[in-house]
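Schema walk-through. Below, the input block comes first and the output block second. Nothing else is stored per chain. Lengths vary across the set, and this one has 199 residues.
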Amino acid sequence: MPTPRIEKTFCTTREAATLLGVSIGTVQLWVESNLLQAWKTAGGHRRVLRESVESLLHKKSTTPALPQSPGAPAGPHRLTVLVVEDDPSLLRLYQTHLSRWPMQPELIMVDNAVSALLAMGKVGPDLLITDLNMPFTDGFEMLRILSQAPEMSKTTIVVVTGLDADAIGQRGSLPRGIEVLPKPVPFNRLLTIATSIIA
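--- output ---
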């Protein structure tokens, strides 16, 4: 009679990185930021709870990503834009406007910060446009996590929010170098920012 196989309840950071499709450094950052549950062995090695990895994978698979811009040319200068917005109507508005930009960017649309962190770890977009008020992990926490990731230093980050400067200050400051734009979404300003990235 064959010995029953016992599934491990944990995995190494390398295994977690492979399962999530991100770098080991990104997994370590997510552990430190409590997006992944983990502990250290007596030898100092991290062990990641498999259930927390599967939870992240489940959130990723159930996020309704909108279709990317059709017919966009593939090439070395193609702009990649990640939009994070939990309002479905606003997300579709972004899709409509950004798909008409002359540089025809590759668009990644997500409705929560966890999916955004997964996308950032995998893609490293040129431009991140995000809201601040979101359920669970909000934009403030997401930007704090991203500010600690050296590989994200080449991404231009823009916040589009209904919060004024005082409200943002009361919730905690944002990392340096992030432009804050008011709602309704100023698409002309976003296009100017996107154009300056590829110039």
